[in-house]
Amino acid sequence: MLTRRIIPCLDVKGGRVVKGKSFIRLQDAGDPVGLADFYYKEGADELVFLDITATPEGRDTMVDVVERISERVFMPLTVGGGLRNIGDMRRMLKAGADKVSINTAALRKPAIISEGAEKFGNQCIVVAIDAKRVGDGEVPRWEVYVSSGQEATGIDAVDWAKQAVELGAGEILLTSMDADGHKAGYDIELTRTISEAVTVPVIASGGAGTLRDLYQVLTEGKADAVLAASIFHYGTYSIAKTKQFLSDRGIPVRT
Amino acid sequence: MIAVVDYGAGNLRSVTNALAKLGYGMKITSRPDDILSAQAVILPGVGAAGDTMKSLEELGMVEPIRQFIAAGRPFLGICIGLQMLFTGTEEGGWHDCLGVLPGRVRRLPGGLKIPHMGWNQVKQKTAHPVFDGIPDEANFYFVHSYYAEPEDSSLVAGETEYGISFCSVVARGSLVATQFHPEKSGEYGLKMYDNFIRFALRAG
After folding, report:
1. CATH number, position A207
2. CATH of the domain at B34
3. Is A253 a domain residue?
4. Catalytically annotated residue among B79, B91, B116, B144
5. What is the pTM of this model?
6. Which of the residues B12, B113, B121 would you substitute to probe the A interface, choosing the one with the greatest number of A C-beta atoms within 10 Å?
7. Angstrom distance (rounded) from CA B55 to CA A178
8. Which residue range is the domain that position B95 belongs to?
9. Which domain holds residue A182?
10. Which residues fall within 8 angstroms of residue A20, CB to CB, at 6 or more apart?
11. Contact residues, B window 30-89, toward A, CB-based 8 Å cutoff
């Protein structure tokens, strides 16, 4: 049976991990290579790296970071943040990334999804969607935001998710902007709506505070994978404890 | 020499990183001559099977690979590299593949998320040296939308469930192929590469 994936997310700026200071076992919690290795040994199922530098020098640094990580860590790696075109995607994949995550560039020029899928295969192309709840009608709706959540697009998140998959996205990385950073649980309704609307796997992101939140989004939210940052980085829960919790409640996980 | 086939696509770097981690030297090659002089050949792959076949044809690799396998020499196919071994694939309309093994490559049934992406268990159906030290039902990392259906069920060395039970490991003598990515499957994945290469070097 396919197991549900537990995915720590690392924000990298200028080659350094931004969050995460409390690892006792790590000498340098800001070193992405060391942190990736730590999560690999802890049993994470996959890693996502978001490059939040978004300058040309930062990009070069990120390529180097991905190269060094892929030499040590034998698990799937997704890299996102500021990838603008096929050339940017190719560089990351050649450096050792298995998938690239595109957000703003995909919305501005959706053809990048189909071009990427054609060149590298659907399985390489993750479309990241930042969605924010709009209105207070009976039927919930979510609007897509881009440019790190700074810019509203007026586009419906469900429509965009479906279009992205039609164009060739192999996976959707879905972040609820309302839930993100609040540690009060994922947006279950958003995740379930998108997951039911598309045929590809959906990674739920934004809002993890407790292990019950992960359980809930994997069951009621119908997510195929869960992404979390702070609960892992600050050592609130280990990967092993997370998996034990989910496994005890009947969720298939890799142990 | 271990030859890793470079046909312009594929997840070459992950494969070479895994071999380097295990301490093996290798030659990344697009030259047909290197295939025939290799002790073992690894055909990695991600992407579409039709494109892969086209690339191999353009490089003049199809015949050398067929000959290499026909001679019973050690060959490891990964993901698309497994699918390529069969008669043909239904991906993007019918495309002929290497035709080393009878069978066809078909799309995974609907109703479940496609691609089949993530860690899933491999049930070992036969004892083969590539499984040495790897427990039955160990998890490996999969990402694919198509699967191979061998005509000869004795080729099926490993099986995995995803809506259906499909062939996730093929083994016949020195010919081994996996639908999953051992280079992305943690320690058991590395173990599988190590097993294959040890086996290949003994055979060669």
Report:
1. 3.20.20.70
2. 3.40.50.880
3. no
4. B79
5. 0.95
6. B113
7. 47
8. 2-203
9. 5-248
10. A10, A29, A30, A35, A233, A234
11. 46-48
